[in-house]
Amino acid sequence: MAGFLRIEQMRAGFSKSEEKIADYILENESKIPKFNVKEFADSVGTSTASIVRFAKKLGYQSFVEFRLGFLEYLKESESGTTVYEAVEKSDSMGDIIDKISSGNSKAILDTAGSLNADMVARAVDAIIKSERVFFFGVGQSALVAEDFQLKLMRIGKDSIFYKDTHSQLASSVHLKKGDLAIGISNSGSSIEVFKALEKAKSKGATIISITTLGRNPISQLADMDFHTIAEEKNYRTGAIVSRMAQLTIVDILFIGVARMSFDEVRDDIKETRSMVEGLKRV
Q1: What CATH code is carried by the domain that includes residue 138?
Q2: Is residue 182 a part of any domain in this protein?
Q3: Tens digit of pLDDT per residue, the chain (282 long)?
Q4: What 8-state DSSP symbol labels residue 158?
Q5: Residues in domain SIS (predicted)?
Q6: How many CB atoms sit inside 10 A of residue 223's CB?
Q7: Would 135 be classed as within a structural domain?
Q8: Backbone angles phi, psi at 155, to 5 degrees
């Protein structure tokens, strides 16, 4: 089902031909499993090669795999097993618990399933080898950036995050080769994050981005780009779900870093915990 969420999330990066295919799929869901590739192409008014390329862009190996995936998606929708829906004013607390937990769980699993293990390994290596790690993010993404920075600080990694966006932009001037800049933006188009990463890149820093799926200005700047898959609904649950997906990527990268020097990291975490434990008791 994640493949079909990608249609909306990747739309900004589609060519005109791909937009035409996407529109047809979303307007004619029930017809898709009945088509072979030629029938589908004829119905859309495009070539079979374009249909196959579109399926591969969504993460499928072939049109047949795409069609089977779509059939599974329709069965889930009809059976009601897809619980996550928009939160409505009339919902009970039980409904809200089910919808939010289902949405968060789905975003975590879909995002994890889209990650490339080789790229994760490259990013972990870049964090370990960097002299300093700078974080850039605004709004909800700033909370995720701060979470990542605090995790790295606890294991002794030189990491910097400024909550004030002007300070973030000013700090980007001081990055240099050997530094790492991590930009987090759900939309992939936050102007403050884009400008900070653009400056960091011009200074020779390595760039990692965490954004929504598809082509966007921030991911295009990155040496390693990670994408969240989170279905946005109303009542701001989209912000909740995307944040959970971002935190999943952050935790995977952090544990990857910690694993490389486990004994050292364990001692660092124990020592940092001991510094504040006594303050938690009256």
Answers
A1: 3.40.50.10490
A2: yes
A3: 455 566 766 776 788 899 899 889 888 888 888 889 999 999 999 999 999 999 888 878 888 888 888 787 677 666 554 444 567 778 889 988 888 888 888 889 888 988 999 999 999 999 999 999 999 999 999 999 999 999 999 899 999 999 999 999 999 999 999 999 999 999 899 999 999 999 999 999 999 999 988 778 999 999 999 999 876 554 444 578 889 999 999 999 999 999 877 777 777 777 777 777 767 666
A4: -
A5: 123-263
A6: 16
A7: yes
A8: -105, 15
